[in-house]
Prior knowledge:
mainly alpha, 0% strand, coiled coil
Amino acid sequence: MATTDSIRQLQNAIAEDYTEDQFAKLFDKIDNIYANRYESYAVGLCGYYSSDDAADKSQAQLRTEKLRVFRDEELRKFKLAQFQSAPVNITQSQSQEAQAAATSIIVGDLSNTYERIDEIPENELSDNDKLKLKGLLAELEQAKQKDASMRKRGIQKVLTFLADKGADAAIAAAPYIGAVAQQLF
């Protein structure tokens, strides 16, 4: 279960005005996943101003906020790793500045693409397929630093993968793929 999917489940529970019993079942499911994954995730969360751990909207909101922190932290780590692995070319300063500007735009698009991929429901695209798609897009990010033929092969790999994964996955990845394809022309 993706963190974004868990956040969405909690938000839906709040919007649908779950009963205390329904909240408790959802909390058990989510707490069991994240308490084992993150040391700082506490089962039976309480707010700073409240020691009330009743299964209700306030506890759902608290869990939502905590999961957003974990999701954002993982995304920052991924962006940092991606940035650190990018090759640096110190030749012509104007060319370098233009490339840096283009890279920052596409990196922004890539992080937005990752967020859109995470938002795809698990019944539409499994967590393994989400991870595979993100990996292919990361490879494409690296290929765009190379020659045009490598970019074309990277785009072909992503499109081949997306061919049988459904519209949601294609829609999530399309803006980024389009941005990389524009660099070919």
